Every structure is written in C-alpha cells, then in structure tokens.
C-alpha cells in the first residue's frame, strides 16, 4: 500500500500496532543487539508483511516512505521494543545497488536481501585505516573472471553471522589513494576467509575482524567501475550516516531517562527537569534537521556533507542523554542488570557503555568536523 497516503498519526498507529501484534514477545525490548539467529524470525515477519525496507522505493520491494514517515517508523519501532534488524543489506547494500548497481545485480541481490537469504557485513575498516579509510591496504588482483583478495578487515558489523560481505579493496597502487579502490561483493563461506570475534565493552559479539587469504570475488559482483569504488563507498557512508543521524535513538534514550526519573520519584527536581528539557530541545532540533536533510536527498538524489552535522549531533546528544541517565540512576547505575520501571526496564550502565562508540563508528566526530570545516566552511 501507499503508506505516504496515510496521515502521520494513522501511520504512527499502524507501525505501533504492527510491532505489538507481530514482533515475537521474546525479542521485544531485547537487552542487547541481537545476533542473526535470534532476530531472523522477526526479520522474516517484517519482510513477509512489507515492513522491512522503509527507505527503498516501492518498485524494489520497499515501503517508499517519505523522510517524515521514515522517522516515525524508527521512533515507533524503538518505542515499542522492536529489536534492531536494520542490517547492512537493507541500510547500505540495497541503496548502493539501487543507485550504482546494474539491472542484473539488482535483480539478483535485492530480493535475497528482502528474503533473508543473504545476510551482509561490511568490509571497510582496517587496522590503521579506520577514519582514514582511503589508506586501506587490502588488495585485489584480477585473474580471469575473478578478483583474488588478500588483506585484513576489522570492526566488521555482523561479521560472525553474515554469508555475504561487501568490501573496499585496492586495485591500483599507482594512483591517488582514493582513485585506486574498487567495491566488491563476495560470499564469506569460502576457503581463505577467517573470522575472529571481538567482544565489545557492554559484552556483545556483533563485531569481528576478518582475514582474507586468496578470497575470490567474481568480476560481475563489482559495483561501479574498476577503481571507482570510492564513489560508491561515499554513497554507502552517506546512507549509513543518514541512518545513524536520525533522532530515533536519542529519543528512545530520552524516554528511558524519563521512565527512570518517574520510577525514582525525581520528577519534582526543577534543576533536573531543566536539563531534561534542554535534551528534549536537542532531540527536536535533530529531528527537524534529519527531515530536511532526508527531503533534500530524495529531491536531489545526492547525499551532501550536511550528513556530518546529523552524525555529530545525534551521537553527542545520545551520549549526553545516557550520561545523565547514569547520573540519575545513582547506585543502580553500577548494576549490570536492568532497573525495573513502569513502561519498560532501564539498563543505565549498558546504555552508557553502548553509547561510547557512537562518536567513533561511521567516522569519528573529529573527522566529521574536519569534513564540515573543509567542504562547508571552506577552512584550510
């Protein structure tokens, strides 16, 4: 159906109803980011009922939501406890193929993303090439109809579970570093690919480092032209920063903070309420900026440097909210277990630890400030 034809209020009610009625009870308000085997049932329900790809055009099996409704979608899913399943295939691979892929690639890969047959991970960051991604050293040489890949990737989201990887590889070392990179897709279940799980500070295992020893990728699975992968990568990073720059995570963190304040009876504290009000204004500013940026993207088809504003503001706002939540929790903030609250438990320590990474992944806050200084403010 055309979801954009609904009023915002009607769509909000529909999204909330879908989560409440269809999301498996064991997965609602899941205490950590679920692994693929845990979230797959919910992923398949979302796919079967047309709720999986809010930003994809309807022609490719998505919901085709407007920017305002995408934000409502994210907010309602978070608010009603749906686990995060916006996997790399939905958020990054699909949009990249829709924009840069061939007809054959779209026909082959997009349906398998929606069906869950392909579950993707991202092979971008490397030791020594994180924020300075163009310095990557993983190489690929062509042999007939295949590329032979050798190198080392790290901080690979969903790396332990994915059966497909998209990666940036160096295919020409004689040119400027951004010009000698290609964008390849390949299966992870093949000889020469080794994964090593990384345990995060909150205790999760969703990241891996991946070693590539003569791993093979078919030439037909290259997205964009040879040595032009940096253009595709910038688009992928733009989609990622747009997604992480929405207000849904800070808004849900704010709801958790408000539940905790009510549970501990701190509502009458005027100084605390002033701080919460300032955070609410920050979240509203972020929401308005996200909607303007998303609308501009849909109109122009181009992701600009303004996504760096979103990434910085969303990450730092989330951190400020979770820092205040830990402060409000007082002695309970040192507990690993969640604090029982009306309307949903609150794990202040887990929230605080998880938000430490948000100013690092997707490009550090310092890198994004440099991008804005150079490309928007024209500072040298």
Give an overview in words.
By secondary structure, this protein is an alpha+beta fold. It contains 11 helices and 8 strands. The strands form 2 sheets. The chain has a 4-stranded mixed sheet with strand order 1-4-5-8. A 4-stranded antiparallel sheet has the order 2-3-7-6, with no helix packed on it. A hairpin with a 2-residue loop joins strand 2 and strand 3. Helix 4 crosses helix 6, helix 6 packs parallel to helix 9 and helix 9 packs antiparallel against helix 11. The protein is globular. The model has no long low-confidence stretch (mean pLDDT 89).
In a few lines, what is going on in this structure?
45% of the residues lie in helices and 14% in strands.
Rg measurement, Å: 21 Å
Rounded to the nearest angstrom, the distance between the terminal CA atoms is: 49 Å
Find the structural class using helix and strand composition. alpha+beta
The biggest sheet amounts to: 4 strands, mixed
- This entry's quaternary arrangement is single chain
Poorly predicted tracts of residues:
none
Question: Helical amount among residues, as a percent range?
Answer: 40-55%
Q: Which strand order do you get reading across the main beta sheet?
A: 1-4-5-8
- By DSSP, the count of extended strands is 8
Q: Provide a count of the helices.
A: 11
């Amino acid at each position: 159906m055309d979801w954009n034809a609904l009023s915002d209020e009607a769509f909000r009610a529909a999204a909330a109803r879908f989560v409440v009625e269809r999301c498996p009870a064991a997965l609602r308000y899941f205490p950590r980011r679920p692994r693929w085997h845990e979230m797959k049932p919910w992923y398949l329900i979302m796919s079967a009922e047309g709720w999986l790809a809010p930003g994809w055009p309807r022609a490719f099996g998505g919901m085709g939501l407007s920017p305002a409704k995408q934000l409502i979608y994210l907010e309602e899913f978070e608010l009603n406890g749906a686990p995060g399943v916006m996997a790399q295939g939905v958020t990054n691979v699909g949009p990249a193929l829709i924009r840069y892929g061939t007809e054959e690639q779209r026909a082959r890969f997009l349906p398998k993303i929606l069906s869950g047959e392909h579950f993707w991970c991202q092979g971008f960051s490397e030791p020594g090439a994180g924020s300075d991604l163009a310095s990557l050293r993983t190489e690929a040489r062509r042999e007939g109809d295949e590329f032979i890949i050798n190198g080392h990737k790290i901080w690979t989201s969903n790396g332990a579970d994915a059966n497909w990887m998209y990666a940036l590889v160096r295919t020409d070392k004689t040119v400027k570093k951004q010009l000698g990179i290609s964008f390849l897709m390949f299966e992870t279940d093949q000889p020469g690919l080794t994964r090593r799980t990384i345990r995060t500070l909150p205790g999760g295992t969703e990241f891996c480092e991946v070693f590539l020893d003569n791993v093979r990728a078919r030439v037909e699975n290259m997205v964009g032209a040879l040595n032009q992968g940096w253009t595709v990568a910038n688009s992928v990073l733009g989609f990622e920063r747009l997604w992480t720059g929405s207000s849904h995570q800070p808004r849900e963190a704010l709801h958790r903070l408000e539940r905790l304040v009510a549970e501990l009876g701190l509502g009458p504290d005027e100084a605390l309420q002033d701080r919460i009000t300032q955070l609410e204004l920050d979240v509203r500013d972020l929401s308005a900026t996200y909607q303007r940026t998303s609308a501009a993207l849909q109109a122009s088809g181009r992701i600009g440097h303004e996504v760096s504003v979103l990434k910085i503001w969303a990450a730092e706002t989330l951190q400020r909210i979770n820092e205040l939540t830990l402060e409000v929790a007082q002695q309970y903030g040192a507990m690993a277990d969640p604090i029982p609250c009306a309307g949903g438990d609150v794990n202040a320590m887990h929230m605080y630890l998880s938000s430490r990474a948000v100013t690092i992944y997707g490009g550090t806050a310092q890198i994004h400030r440099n991008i804005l200084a150079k490309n928007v403010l024209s500072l040298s």
